[in-house]
Design goal:
Layout (H helix, E strand, L loop, with lengths): L6 E11 L2 E10 L13 E7 L6 E7 L11 E9 L5 E9 L2 E9 L6 E2 L26 E8 L6 E8 L9 E8 L5 E4 L13 E8 L2 E7 L7 H4 L7 E6 L12 E2 L5 E8 L5 E10 L2 E6 L3 E6 L2 E4 L3
Antiparallel strand pairs: 1-2, 2-3, 3-4, 5-6, 6-7, 7-8, 9-10, 10-11, 11-12, 13-14, 14-15, 15-16, 17-18, 18-19, 18-20, 20-21
Length: about 300
C-alpha cells in the first residue's frame, strides 16, 4: 500500500519497465485540512516497486504550469505509454479554472519529465462534446486520458472523460475518443458510447483484455449518477463493462458495479505472478476521506464484467 503521512493520495496510473512497476499519483498536502480542496493543489508524484506492495518514493514527475498555461490550476490524471523509439510519453489532464484539456510530457528514463511545447494536444470538440457554459455541469470535462495502441497496428487511441453535447444535463457521460498516428498530433473523434446510460460523467478509463474478453473500467460516484440510476444504486465506485473490441463501441448501460465508494479509481494490472489484479485508492471511511492506494486485489471475469475474487 502507498500511504503518505503528510499528504492525501488519490488517482494514479502505472508504467512497467522490466520487473519494475512505476506508479504515478496525484497528491496534495494534508495541511489543507479539507480534502475537497486537494484538487486545486494536486501534483503528480512518483514511486517504484517490484511487487506492487512496497513502494519507494521518487522525485515528483510534474507540477502545475504558470499563469496562462493550460495547466495553470493543476495537473491531474493521465497515463503512460512507451513510443516505438523507446521514449516514454505521459498524457495528463491540465486544469485551468473550469476548463480541462490534455497535455503531454516526455521522458527518457521515467524519472525526469519535460512538458511538450505543443501543449495542449487535445481539447473537447463542440461538434460532439459539451463545452462549459456555467449551467449544465460544474466543469468542461476533458480529462483522464487513457492511451493505448490500436489492436491492428493503426496508430493510437485515447479514451477521455467527456460529456456529450446533448441529452439531459445529468446523464451526458460518454467515452470520449481521439486518435493519433504519431503520439503527438491527435484528432478528436465522436464518442464511443451514447449518453443516457445513467452517468453524469465516466472517470478514469482503462481498457484491457482479461482472459480473452475486452473489459472497460471506469469510475463514477453516486452523487454523479443520473437520478433514475441513483434510485436503484445503494452505492457507486468502480464500474466495469464487457465489449467486443478494445476500440468500442461500449454499451455503458450494461455496466456493473465492481466496488462501492470505499474504493475509487480502479486500475487493472498484472501482478507479479501474472494474474490480473485491481488497485484502487481508499476513498471513504468512517471518518471521511482516506487518501491512500490499496494493495493489489485479485479479480475474476464474469459474463457481464469483473468482480473481486475473495482469497
Amino acid at each position: 500500500m502507498l500511504e503518505l503521512p503528510d499528504s492525501w493520495v488519490w488517482d494514479f496510473w502505472f508504467a512497467r519497465d522490466g520487473d519494475e512497476y512505476h506508479l504515478f499519483f496525484l497528491y496534495a498536502s494534508r495541511a489543507l485540512h479539507d480534502p475537497d480542496r486537494r484538487h486545486g493543489r494536486a501534483s503528480i508524484g512518483h514511486a517504484v516497486s517490484d511487487d506492487l506492495r512496497n513502494w519507494t518514493r521518487l522525485p515528483d514527475a510534474l507540477v502545475h504550469g504558470e499563469a496562462g498555461d493550460f495547466d495553470e490550476t493543476a495537473t491531474w490524471t493521465g497515463s503512460v505509454v512507451r513510443a516505438p523509439d523507446g521514449q516514454w510519453y505521459m498524457y495528463y489532464t491540465g486544469a485551468r479554472d473550469k476548463i480541462q484539456t490534455v497535455g503531454l510530457a516526455t521522458s527518457d528514463d521515467l524519472i525526469t519529465w519535460h512538458k511538450y511545447d505543443g501543449n495542449p494536444v487535445t481539447a473537447a470538440d463542440p461538434r460532439w462534446y459539451e463545452k462549459y457554459d456555467g449551467t449544465s455541469w460544474f466543469d468542461e470535462a476533458w480529462r483522464d486520458p487513457w492511451v493505448y495502441p490500436d489492436p491492428d497496428g493503426d496508430g493510437w487511441h485515447m479514451l477521455i472523460t467527456a460529456r456529450a453535447g446533448h441529452g439531459p444535463a445529468d446523464d451526458r457521460g460518454v467515452v470520449g475518443h481521439a486518435r493519433s498516428t504519431d503520439l503527438l498530433h491527435w484528432e478528436v473523434q465522436p464518442p464511443l458510447s451514447e449518453p443516457g446510460a445513467g452517468f453524469g460523467h465516466l472517470e478514469v478509463f482503462q481498457v484491457e483484455v482479461v482472459d480473452g474478453q475486452v473489459v472497460l473500467l471506469f469510475n463514477c460516484l453516486r452523487g454523479e449518477l443520473a437520478p433514475w440510476r441513483q434510485e436503484t444504486a445503494r452505492s457507486s465506485g468502480v464500474w466495469s463493462v464487457v465489449a467486443d473490441s478494445p476500440t468500442g463501441p461500449f454499451d455503458i448501460s450494461k455496466a456493473t458495479l465492481l466496488t462501492d465508494d470505499s474504493l475509487y479509481v480502479g486500475r487493472l494490472i498484472r501482478d507479479v505472478d501474472g494474474s490480473w489484479a485491481l488497485l484502487a485508492f481508499h476513498n471513504q471511511g468512517p471518518d471521511g476521506f482516506i487518501g491512500s492506494i490499496s494493495h493489489p486485489m485479485p479479480v475474476e471475469l464474469t459474463p457481464t464484467g469483473l468482480t473481486l475474487r475473495h482469497v
